[in-house]
Amino acid sequence: MVARIYRPARNAMQSGKARTRVWILDFEPAKPKVVEPLMGYTSSGDMRQQVRLTFDTREQAVEYAERNGIAYEVEDTPRIARSRVSYSDNFKYDRVQPWTH
């Protein structure tokens, strides 16, 4: 079973950066999910799929996986640099593009 070590993406519904500085170790599913025929519930016999471990640094997550003999893959997500523009810049007198209603 392979574990995935990654940094979570920022929530698209909020502008904050909470919970994006940690590294997460998730296990990939070993068995496919099964739909229970009577009630239609989705279930799985794989209990490792419910485990999610968080670490402060990537090195801690990798060290934990190596120490416990867990095969892992590290996903590095590139950080996107955002331009810092204030709201008041929309109403500047010497703006490059004209502002209209």
UniProtKB/TrEMBL annotation:
Identify the domain of life: Bacteria
Which keywords does the record carry? Electron transport, Membrane, Respiratory chain, Transit peptide, Transport
Protein name as catalogued = ETC complex I subunit conserved region
Chief location category: membrane
Annotated compartments? Membrane
